[in-house]
Design brief:
The structure is a homodimer of 140-residue chains. Helices cover 25% and strands 6% of the residues of chain A. The first copy, chain A, is mainly alpha-helical and 140 residues long. Chain A has a single domain, classed as Erythroid Transcription Factor GATA-1, subunit A (Erythroid Transcription Factor GATA-1, Chain A), CATH 3.30.50. In chain A, the strands form 2 sheets. In chain A, strands 1-2 form a two-stranded antiparallel ribbon. The longest helix of chain A is centred in the middle third of the chain and has 10 residues. The first copy, chain A, binds a DNA duplex (18 and 18 nucleotides) through strand 3 and helix 3.
Chain lengths: 140, 140
DNA sequence: CGTGGTTCAAATGGTTCA
DNA sequence: TGAACCATTTGAACCACG
């Protein structure tokens, strides 16, 4: 986590932003009516380099592309652990205002800290390419 | 670190303040200019009975990393008791100048004296790695 | 058999009040 | 201040469909 950001309050952070300059995913804080997945699409969140996207063959000793935990297979089109799978299901379609980062929106996500920043965790889920389209239509 | 200390040193105290037999820790604390830990050391403060506390048998047998009290799990990413958890919530985001140590800023924190020096208690909370990042943003 | 979906106990941040 | 409580999130285990 980026502790340096702490001197800025969240309110300051939001106020500092220019209202009509929604160039990035993070600045989308200002514009609050869309869900995370829409935002990701609209603002073209950069994808991480995808060595993680292995051929769908071997299922042993896999590592979650989000947090690094042990993984047993694909979930929503990427190799992830069970907890990130459940997390993605629960959060991918939420309104972004429910998932604010307390810092600069670039928290590292690890197995130890993954539950401390839902914003950056879901952001990373999308960044590695997890597909919300696979979520059943009833939840959309 | 010597923030807002009184001028008397621990050594001065021990030399000049021989307690008489009627002195108790509590009486002394009322007019204290002295470090809690020093007082405790000098006046042989009776230990609280832990049996009551220990009776709450739960699954785990953990010890608070701040004060040593019985702990039941993680709070703010470290194993702590419920009281240090609540204390951290209340104080982690305060201005440090609101939390003055009367002494040298190095009070020992124990289950018995933890509430006597908020400065040193919060200092220890941070020293053991409690994460203020987990505090929800609305309190910042 | 793989993976999306479900369940639920455990964990833990937050609240209350004496 | 801290014991007791409450509410929400989590993730391991499981189910079931294709």
């Amino acid at each position: 986590m980026n502790i340096d950001c702490y001197s800025i309050t969240e309110e300051d952070f939001i106020n500092e932003m220019e209202p009509n300059n929604n160039d990035t995913f993070d600045e989308y804080f200002l514009d609050s009516n869309l869900c995370v997945s829409t935002m990701i699409k609209k603002y073209d969140v950069p994808m991480l380099d995808n060595n993680e996207y292995m051929k769908k063959t071997k299922k042993k000793n896999l590592q979650c592309a989000v947090c690094g935990a042990r993984a047993f297979g694909y979930n929503f089109d990427r190799i992830t652990c069970e907890s990130c799978k459940a997390f993605f299901r629960r959060n991918a379609l939420k309104n972004i205002m429910e998932l604010k980062c307390r810092f600069d929106g670039n928290c590292d996500i690890t197995i130890e800290n993954r539950r401390f920043c839902t914003y950056c965790r879901i952001k990373k889920c999308f960044a590695i390419g997890m597909l919300y389209e696979i979520l059943s239509s009833k939840e959309k």
